[in-house]
Amino acid sequence: MQTKVSIPPLREEIGEQTARYIDQLTKPQGSLGTLESLAIDLAKMTGETFPTVLPAGVIVFAADHGITEEGVSAYPQEVTAQMVRNFLNGGAAINVFSQQIGAKLKVVNIGVATDIHDEKVVNRHIRKGTRNFLKEDAMTLSEVEMAIDAGYEEAVHYINEGIKCLIVGEMGIGNTTSSSALLAALTTHSIESIVGYGTGITEEQRQHKVDIIHQSLHNRKPNPEDALDLLAKVGGLEIAAMTGAMLAAAEHRVPILVDGFICTVSACLATLICPDVKHYMIVAHQSVEPGHQKAIAYLKKEPLLNLSLRLGEGTGAAIAFPLLQFATNMVKQMATFSSAGVSTK
Ligand SMILES: Cc1cc2ncn([C@H]3O[C@H](COP(=O)(O)O)[C@@H](O)[C@H]3O)c2cc1C
Ligand SMILES: O=C(O)c1cccnc1
């Protein structure tokens, strides 16, 4: 079981070397702002004074949710499988963006409700969607452990293939309901303040979603200090798999670019399993979902971008990835004052 990971400490001394080097580059000190702190953070994570983030690897985990029976999404459950086919055919937003940043894209079926016969999908199928958590636990503990382990192993394969930055994404109709329930259980924020419009429900449907989460948490009573119990009671297979993937990346000193609301809730659960995983996370953007701000605050992080995205799939992380390239290329390619013959103040 991959909850026994050992995450190495950040290499603070390497970060200090990078910081000193950045101060010698031909620009006023500190003038590249957040790009400078990003480069220093990447140096501490990777243990390299001149860090590299290329190539990035994107993994999208897909699964269904029994809670969709309660009418909590604007789209029917079948869209999960249809979007997986779209990913495999190259037509989704994450395909376009992965290609643009030169990243590999791996699609993992961790629990889609209908069969997908396609050799391009990585088959780590555990069950046909979660159970309806209004009525019963979403998963057994052993299903949660299998999903975390599958995510962990898929990330390890990717890292062994040479990826230097991990982007995790998800596809699962109904997963903003599961993520909202998880975050409400994990924090003291009200359900009302966390729940948003997901794929585009009406205000009336949002009120219904709040009520369903309220009743579900009352019925399930997850233990807020136990990530496995939270996932078993109100979680999702793809949410558990993303948690495992993040633990693997941190264990291997691979920076994790965290996407939107659902992905950030997985990140929160990963920190509950192993607090040190947080040091390897960079939050790419601030999603429109109101719970996202609260999940980012739980991690004590700042998002790099706010582009009013509300998609998921790993898209926001792919969009932010070039900022990491700007930061690492700045360190590797800029001239120093002495090499360029530019006078210091
Ligand atoms: C066509 C389509 C593509 C998507 N890609 C990601 N999501 C996103 O929307 C879903 C969560 O929203 P909710 O909880 O309201 O169902 C997830 O699948 C998420 O990845 C999509 C949703 C749709 C409809
Ligand atoms: O922020 C996200 O990741 C998100 C928001 C709405 C729907 N799907 C994903």
From TrEMBL:
The keyword Glycosyltransferase applies. HAMAP family: CobT (MF_00230). The keyword Transferase applies. It comes from the Bacteria. This is Nicotinate-nucleotide--dimethylbenzimidazole phosphoribosyltransferase. InterPro entries: Nict_dMeBzImd_PRibTrfase, Nict_dMeBzImd_PRibTrfase_bact, Nict_dMeBzImd_PRibTrfase_N, Nict_dMeBzImd_PRibTrfase_sf. Catalyzes the synthesis of alpha-ribazole-5'-phosphate from nicotinate mononucleotide (NAMN) and 5,6-dimethylbenzimidazole (DMB). Keywords: Cobalamin biosynthesis, Glycosyltransferase, Transferase. Belongs to the CobT family. It holds the Pfam family DBI_PRT. It catalyses: 5,6-dimethylbenzimidazole + nicotinate beta-D-ribonucleotide = alpha-ribazole 5'-phosphate + nicotinate + H(+).
